């Protein structure tokens, strides 16, 4: 009997060649959870197919999770638009089912938070929706606390769960 060992995942910074693959992951996961463009979720972002360029801006970074040459997830951090300069936002954390439950989201989020600290941010904000319970549990475990009012101008009007963490 042969034993199949799982191939380890690699977390690395996004490249321009990753744009189509990570956009596809985001669209697949959004469809899985019913996060439609008409409700103002990430799939409606006009720059979804250009994440390398978006996260090449000062203070921003995006990482992809690669396994067997395929992108299976990703997430990033960027300055929070329309807000005080000391606040960043944890953004676009999406993982295919094959990449969930292995600690990859936690590892990526910790990398993003460390990057944010190194960039001089004092707080990290995020928005999500209540039925993404696994994500909310992770964010709470990482020290994010729910806040009532939205910060910045993210455009994600249906993300009713807002969280903030001191860095």
From TrEMBL:
InterPro entries per record: Acyl_CoA_acyltransferase, GNAT_dom, NAT_camello-type
Example of a GO MF term: N-acetyltransferase activity
Name of the top EC class for this enzyme: transferase
Keyword Membrane part of the UniProt annotation: no
Keywords: Acyltransferase, Transferase
Residue intervals of the N-acetyltransferase domain: 9-167
Identification of the protein by name: Acetyltransferase
Organism: Trabulsiella guamensis ATCC 49490
């Amino acid at each position: 009997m042969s034993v199949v060992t799982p191939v380890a995942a690699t977390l690395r910074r996004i490249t321009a060649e990753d744009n189509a693959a990570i956009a596809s992951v985001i669209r697949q996961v959004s469809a899985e959870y019913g996060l439609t463009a008409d409700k103002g979720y990430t799939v409606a972002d006009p720059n979804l197919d250009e994440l390398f360029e978006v996260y090449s801006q000062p203070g921003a970074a995006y990482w992809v999770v690669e396994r067997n040459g395929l992108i299976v997830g990703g997430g990033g951090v960027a300055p929070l638009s329309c807000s005080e300069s000391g606040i960043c936002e944890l953004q676009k954390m999406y993982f295919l089912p094959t990449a969930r439950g292995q600690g990859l989201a936690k590892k990526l989020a910790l990398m993003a938070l460390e990057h944010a600290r190194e960039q001089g941010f004092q707080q990290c904000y995020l928005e999500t929706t209540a039925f993404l319970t696994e994500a909310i549990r992770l964010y709470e475990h990482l020290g994010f606390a729910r806040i009532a009012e939205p910060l910045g101008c993210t455009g994600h009007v249906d993300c009713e769960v807002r969280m903030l963490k001191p860095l």
